[in-house]
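[audit] Reproducing an earlier prediction to check determinism. Same input, same settings, fresh worker. If the tokens differ from the archived copy the diff job will pick it up downstream; this log only records the rerun itself.
[audit] input (280 residues):
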Amino acid sequence: MKNHLQDTVTLHNGVRMPSFGLGVFKVQKGEELVEAVKAAIKHGYRSIDTAAIYGNEQGVGRGIREALQENGLRRADLFVTSKVWNADQGYESTIAAYEASLSKLGLESLDLYLVHWPVKGKFKETWLALETLYKEGRVKAIGVSNFHIHHLEELMQEATIKPMVNQVELHPRLSQKELLRFTQEQGIQLEAWSPLMQGELLDNETLREIGAKYGKSVAQVILRWDIQNGIVTIPKSTKEHRIIENAAIYDFELTSEDMALIDALNENRRVGPDPDNFDF
């Protein structure tokens, strides 16, 4: 089961998505961002996750173009995700938002486009726009982000295409086991944002002890736990040594006892907003 950094999961439409990628939330546009994207690709990452609201799609696009050239890769070798922001939700505005994201990224299409938050009264219409983009072959896969089970159920009552991915806050303090079970039953791939809880877990004693056993950092233990749970994970970092370290999780395997110890850290505690209660 140890696997490899470029391993993929197969989404329910047959598209293969890397199970490990780079997140760029809160990374300011500029050289640091471009270099982080280039470093990730140089060191074997094949998935980059951004969003319109991050305000950094242009830098991500530049990093991708430069990395492809420098590493002799093709666009098809990478998996690029972006998301439609809440203010742009609705049918026509979502189509326009997709165009705007492509233009900023300098790409002809995305591999995955997500509804960023379940905006009441809007997310179904937004989903219809994603279905249109998908049916027209303009995006390889479509999904949602920050959807609880009831949001998914509500969406699927009217959707003609089931979401392929649900990207949510997920880490050992918020293990989302019920949501994981539900998405697995439905054939929806769960993806973790903020897998390291924005650094809050890095001095956790249980995780440190587990890490010591394998000669691994707390971050590596958490990311390995994601992979062994069948969850796609996208840790954020701008430092090259950390980007390399985060991905060095394919030479060890957590025992079922260690997996259970990590599961037991769950407190249903979030660092981000609750999808049932956000106002943006």
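[audit] rerun output stored. Observation attached for the diff report: The domain at 8-200+229-238 is CATH 3.20.20.100 (TIM Barrel).
[audit] end
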